[in-house]
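REQUEST ID: PR-0412
SUBMITTED BY: lab tech R.K.
PRIORITY: routine
TASK: structure prediction, single protein chain
INPUT:
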Amino acid sequence: MRPNAAFRNDARAKVTGRATYADDISIAGMLHAAPVYADYVSARDLVVDASEALASPGCVRVITAADVPGTACYGQIEKDYPIFCSGRVRSYGDVCALVVAETRSAAKAAAALVKVAATPVKPVLTIDEALEPGAPVVPSYGDTNVVTHHRLRHGDPDPVFEACELVLEEEFTTQAIEHAYMEPETAVCVPRSDGVVEVYGSMQHPFSTRRFVAALLGEPLSNVEVYTIAVGGGFGGKDDTAAAVCARAALAARLTGRPVKLRYDREWSFRESYKRHPYRMRYKVGVSSEGRVLAVRATMHADSGAYLSVTPWVTWRSTAQCFGPYVVDDIHADVYGVATNNVFTGAMRGFGAPQVNFAVEQLMDMAAHELKIHPLGMRRINMVKQDSVTVTGQRLDGHVVSMEDVMNRVVHEIGYRKKYEHCSFGKPAAEGSDELYGIGLAISYRGASLGAEGMDFCSCIINGQYDGSILLETGIHENGQGAESAMTLILADELGVDLGRVRYKRSSTSSIPDSGTTVATRGTVMGGSAVVVAAGQYRDLLSRHLADRLRCRPEDVTFHDDKIWGLNYEYSLTWEEAMRELFLQRVTPYAFGTFQAPPVSWDDTTGQGDAYFTYVYSCQAVELTVDRKTGKIRLLNVVAGHDIGKAVNRALLLGQVYGGVTQGVGMALMEDFAYEDGRPACENFDKYLLPRATDLPEMTGVIIENRDPNSLTGAKGIGEPALELIAPAIANAVFNATGVRCRDLPIRLRPEDLA
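STATUS: complete
OUTPUT:
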C-alpha cells in the first residue's frame, strides 16, 4: 500500500459542494411527499380520515396501508416493521399515511389536515414492565416480549464462585442514542417507461432498500433499481428507516406515475428512526487473590423497542464478546432482546459491543482496585494471547494476537504508568484546588466482519476501457467512510497503475450482485479482498493474451510503474497499447471476482464456536480532570491504538479513529435519547447534546500493523473498534480522579457526589 497517501476519490466534489445528495436531485414533474404519524404510543382500531387533506390546494393523493399492493410490513429478520401501519399502533414513530402533493409545502400542509383516531392501549415502556407476568405483548408475532435469547455456556461458574477471593456483583446501564447523521432521510423515486422504479436515496444498504421497496410494491426485485449516491452520514442508522422512506416514495411514484421526493425534517427523523439499544447488564465475577478471573455469570437485557429489526444480531455480538478480550474458563451468559413500545432500536456503530465493554472494562478496574493490583497487571493476567481459547471456545491461532502489544503501545504513548501514580482518587493534588485528575484505559478485541451472524462474501468487477482507463465496482457501499477510496488504492497497487487510471463506478443494484450490507467493519476486509481476487483474474487474462507481444511466457508478465512488462523488462506495453491489442484479439478486458470469508461456526444452544475469522485488537486511554465544585469533566488527552492488520489509507484511517472517539465521547458524557411516556423528549439538536470541537481533547492515533492472513490485503478494519472503548476508559479515569464509580451512561457527576 502507499503508506503516506492521503487519497479521497470524492474529495473535490465534496469540498466544492458538487457532490449530489438525494435532496439535490430535482426532476421535471416531480411531486413531494410528507408522512403522517399515528400520534399514539400504543393504540388499536386505528382510523385515518384524509378527506380534508385531499381537498387542500396541491394535494394529489393520500396513501395508506389500504393502497399497498404488496406487504405493508417488512423487516430484515421478522417482517414486523410497518412501512404503513394499520389497525394497531405500537410506537410513536409509526407512519399511517403519506401525503403526496405538487410542492413540499403543500404536502406538509395537507398532512396536518389528516385526522387520525384510535383507542389507546396502555404502553409498555421499560424492560421491567415488559418482563412482568401478564404484561401486554408488544410484538405482532409470538406470545412474549422476549424477542430473542442468546446463551453462552463455557464451563460451570456456580461452584467456582465459592473458592474465589473476590466476588463482584454489579449492574450497569447504557442509554438509547441517536445516530445524529447530518443528512436526514431522503428519497427520490422515478417510474421508468420500462416498468422499473429507480430509487435514489440517503441509505446505507442499496440491496436491503431494494428488498423493502419490492415487498411494499409487491413486485420482483428486478423491477427496482437502487442507485448509489452521496450519503451524509449513517453510522448504522440508515437501514430499516431509510429503506422504509424509499419504499414509501417508490409506492407514491408507482401510484401517481410521476417522480416523487420524500425529504425528512429532522423532527421526523428523530421521531421515527431507530436508535442504539439501551442495555441493562448484571454481572457476577469471581476473581482469585492473584487477579485471575475464575468465574463469570452475566445477564443482559436490551430494549428492542416496538419492532425486531436486527436485535438478534446485535445481542448475538454482545454474547460472543460478553466478557471482552479475556480468558475465562467458567462463564455463563444470557442475553435477551425485550420488546417495548419505545421507538425501535437497531444497528449503530459498535453493534452491541460498546455497551458490554462499558461494563467489562470497569469490572476489571474494580477488581484490580479491590485486590490492590495495578489495572495493567490485572489485564495482562487475563487477556487473550497467542493460542488462547476464548469464552466461545475458539482457539486464537490463525492470526497475530496482539492484545498485549497494543496495550503496551498505548501505555507508552500516553505515559500511563507514571501518570496513574498522580491520580487524585478524590483528593486534589494541591491544597485549595478543586481540580481532580485521573487517567484510565480500556481494551477490547472485536470480531471482524459478520462472523457467525450471517453468510459473508463480496464481489468486484474490473472493466478495462479501450483508452487504458479502468472502471472498478464492488458490492461495498460508500457511506462517507472512504470505502471507494480504499478499493481504488487496493486496485491501483494490485495492477501497478497510477491512481488516475482507476475510476470507481457509481453502482446500482442492477450492475453488481448483492454482496451483503456494508456493516460490521467489513468494508475493507471483504471489499478489498474481492478486489484482490478480481485483480488476480484480470492480470491472468492480460498475461495470457499479451505474452506474445511481450515475447515471454504468461507467468513472466509483470505489472508495475503504470506499464505491463515482459521478462527482464526488455519489452513493455502501456495500458493504452495493451487495451488496443486486446481489442484486436477480440478479448474483453473484464474480470469478476468473489471473495468468501473464511469459515466460522456457532452452536446456538451453548454459544460455542469459532465466532469470527479474525479480530481487531484495541486500546484507548484518556486523561481528564473533574471540577469538584461543579462535577464538570474536562478531557485532556486521548490515545487510541488499534491493530488494523494493514493500513490501506492511513489519513482516512486516522480520521475514522478520531471520529469514532468523538462519538464515544458523546456516548460517555452527553448523549441520551430519553422518552417521556413513550414520546421522544427532544425532536432536534437544540436539546440533544452532542460533543462540540471545544469538548474534545488532543487525540493521538497509534496504528499497529500485523498483516492478517485471513484478509487478502492483510487489512482488517477500524470503523467500529474506534468507538467502542472510550466510554469505559472515561469511566475508569473518572473513578481514578474522584473515587466515584459511574455505572450508568451518560456519566453525570453532581457536586454532592464529590464532597
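NOTES: The radius of gyration is 27 Å.
REVIEWED BY: pending
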